[in-house]
Inverse folding.
């Protein structure tokens, strides 16, 4: 069943080009308009939405953080992301004009389900993004976009995460189209760029051997930090979570801009720090600022492991190790930059002799609050 892979996790990481491609499949109607899988909300209601709240747990919440950048940029609707377990118990301000987006691979996560119920009681409409057909969260929601990652067996989420991000982009483009923020040809162009991403993920996987070697080499690491900015920030958080879950290493993700507000105090000789570098292109690029961050931590002795786009030479002088990823539009980058971090965590955990498919203390589906 593992198809020649040492564990399900490696298999699922390798299946990611397919998971993203399948999630994008068949999303437009005869007129080229995006469609959701199930829609029990009046389109007029979706046009009048004045706030979006994304609720999810763990890895799914990081997909939600990526979604915030894309949805606000494309749709101009204020978007918050909140952990479902916090949302439910803080008396959140939601009403008929709020659209709640609940992201869940399993569709059975109790924290997320309770948050969905609470939001609907306040009159909000809920769109579920889910990988499991007919599970509880989509059944209790007003609309559904299914991710087509296929069954995810390994406890730690990999391909479902990339599929969730993909579905969030689709939702963002759907809303932008519906609400008239984007012209049809702009949406079509973004869909075309999105359709190129599976091949770009495959390119990352084809060149992954050095990342595996790095994982094996770092098997005795005690602490690893991850820095990212803009959509690279949730990627850093996900990289850290994978390392905690799989390899039981203390790992922390930070927003690169926050470094000087505290975390830089942690930097000492030899400390490994992954940096997810944003694209050097784009109008409001923070690329130069992140390159300065790499320079600052390296000057304090950090071992810098940099994930940067092909052709980005600015990072070369400050990187101890460079992991290259193909060029993508800025907002789509998490679909490629996440992959080396997953492989690194998996390989390191394997080198430690750990069971990567079933890490200690964890369950695939958390059905208690
Ligand atoms: C991390 C992981 C968890 C889940 C979280 C939500 O690798 O798997 O953090 O992402 O428990 O699960 P779902 O998406 O099923 O609601």
């Amino acid at each position: 069943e593992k198809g020649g892979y040492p564990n399900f996790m490696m298999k699922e990481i390798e299946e990611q080009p397919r998971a993203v491609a399948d999630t994008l499949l068949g999303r437009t109607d005869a007129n080229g308009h995006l469609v959701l899988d199930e829609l029990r909300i009046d389109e007029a209601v979706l046009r009048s939405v004045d706030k979006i709240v994304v609720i999810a747990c763990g890895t799914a919440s990081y997909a939600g953080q990526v979604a915030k950048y894309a949805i606000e940029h494309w749709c101009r609707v204020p978007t918050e992301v909140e952990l479902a377990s916090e949302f439910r118990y803080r008396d959140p301000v939601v009403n008929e004009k709020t659209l709640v987006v609940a992201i869940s691979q399993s569709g059975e996560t109790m924290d997320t389900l309770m948050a969905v119920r609470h939001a609907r009681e306040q009159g909000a409409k809920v769109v579920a993004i889910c990988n499991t057909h007919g599970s509880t969260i989509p059944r209790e929601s007003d609309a559904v976009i299914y991710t087509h990652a296929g069954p995810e067996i390994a406890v730690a989420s990999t391909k479902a995460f990339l599929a969730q991000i993909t579905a969030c982009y689709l939702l963002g483009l759907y809303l932008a189209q519906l609400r008239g923020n984007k012209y049809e040809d702009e949406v079509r162009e973004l869909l075309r760029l999105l359709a190129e991403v599976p091949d770009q993920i495959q390119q990352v996987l084809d060149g992954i051997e050095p990342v595996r070697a790095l994982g094996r080499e770092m098997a005795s690491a005690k602490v690893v930090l991850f820095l990212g900015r803009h959509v690279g920030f949730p990627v850093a958080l996900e990289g850290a979570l994978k390392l905690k879950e799989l390899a039981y290493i203390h790992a922390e993700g930070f927003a690169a801009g926050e470094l000087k507000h505290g975390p830089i105090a942690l930097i000492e000789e030899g400390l490994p720090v992954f940096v997810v570098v944003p694209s050097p292109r784009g109008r409001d690029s923070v690329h130069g600022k992140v390159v300065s961050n790499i320079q600052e931590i390296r000057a304090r002795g950090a071992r810098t492991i940099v994930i940067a786009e092909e052709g980005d030479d600015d990072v070369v002088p400050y990187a101890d190790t460079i992991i290259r990823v193909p060029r993508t539009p800025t907002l789509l980058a998490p679909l490629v930059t996440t992959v080396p971090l997953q492989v690194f965590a998996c390989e390191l955990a394997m080198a430690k002799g750990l069971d990567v498919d079933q890490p200690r203390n964890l369950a695939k589906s958390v059905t208690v609050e």
User: Anything to note?
Assistant: The CA atoms of residues 79 and 273 lie 30 Å apart. The chain has a mean pLDDT of 96. The pocket of fructose -6-phosphate is lined by residues 57-60, 104-106, 109, 112, 156-157, 241, 245, 365-366 (CB under 6 Å). The longest strand covers residues 98-104.
